[in-house]
Amino acid sequence: MTPGEAAAELTGVAAVDVRRIGNAVYEVDLADGDLVVAKRHDAPGAALAEAASLEWLAEPEGPAVPGVRGHDDHWLVLDQVEPGSPTPRAAEEFGRRLAALHATGAPAFGAPPPGGPENAVIGSAPLRNAPSVTWSDWFARDRIACYVRLAVDAGVLTPAEARTIENVRVEAPGEPPARLHGDLWNGNVHWAADGRAWLIDPAAHGGHRESDLAMLALFGCPHLDRVLSAYHEAAPLADGWRDRIPLHQLFPLLVHAVLFGRGYAQQALSAARALP
């Protein structure tokens, strides 16, 4: 099925023009004048996982998310959001709204969005979402150990390096499960023409709210200081949260090591060694 055919089938409106805007991502003009984005997912359950994630994150007090127009086994069609530029004001509102989203909570650590699959993806890497009672056990098992094994299998971590990472102390203040975006690097914050920061490409699940913030800091986010200050004012973070940033960053760094190689494995090692 072509992107235009997928958009037409899932919206019920004929497609009149298609433009590729990314890897397996297309902008589609519909006959009724609407503009949508069609995304192809090859991994089983990935389109469902993203659709369920977006619907779960669409909280009135949280950051805006694109509307889901439809999905099937491989295609996801979303409302298009006109791009804009990041501003300090948008960053502060984003921080406050992200705090509100986290506070809406989740049934458990590791819980998938309602209707979402247990076996999802992050990028093109597998992502298991299975509810757990404690954050530390879940994070150590499903967000560190499993990707360490994949990295060793891929030859980007040695067994000795793997032990260094697996031996980190996984501890964070006791808080209820937060509703996380789950893949919140800067590229998944869409600064829109309407003056807001929108969330895109989520891998949503229940987790610790510090994880989303640590991922925002990992690859650089415009006006990050404004985002964090507004977040902390709206929902104060526990003492020592900055010291725990490397712990939470182990997960995305290991995923990147599995997908993109040795350089990210070395960053993961550096993060592990920075922890007490």
Describe the structure.
44% of the residues are buried. It is globular, with a radius of gyration of 19 Å. With 276 residues, the chain is α+β, with helices and mostly antiparallel strands. The longest helix has 19 residues, at 135-153. It has a single domain (82-276), classed as Aminoglycoside 3'-phosphotransferase, Chain: A, domain 2 (Alpha-Beta Complex). The chain contains 9 helices and 11 strands. The strands form 4 sheets. It has a 5-stranded antiparallel β-sheet with strand order 1-2-3-5-4, sandwiched between helices. A two-stranded antiparallel ribbon has the order 6-7. The model has no long low-confidence stretch (mean pLDDT 96). It has helices spanning 3-11, 46-57, 88-103, 135-153, 159-166, 209-218, 224-234, 245-260, 262-273, and strands at residues 15-22, 25-30, 35-40, 68-71, 75-79, 119-122, 125-128, 178-180, 189-191, 197-199, 205-207.
Tell me the count of domains. 1
The CATH homologous superfamily name equals: Aminoglycoside phosphotransferase (APH), C-terminal lobe
Helix content: 40-55%
Structure classification: alpha+beta
Order of helices and strands: HEEEHEEHEEHHEEEEHHHH
Shape: globular
Low-confidence region ranges? none
Output the strand order for the largest sheet: 1-2-3-5-4
Could you tell me the mean pLDDT? 96
From the 3D structure, determine the CATH topology. Answer: Aminoglycoside 3'-phosphotransferase, Chain: A, domain 2
Number of strands: 11
Radius of gyration from the alpha-carbon trace, in angstroms: 19 Å
Which CATH architecture is right?
Alpha-Beta Complex
CATH C-level class is Alpha Beta
Pfam families: Fructosamin_kin
GO molecular function, one term: kinase activity
InterPro entries: Fructo-/Ketosamine-3-kinase, Kinase-like_dom_sf
Keywords: Kinase, Transferase
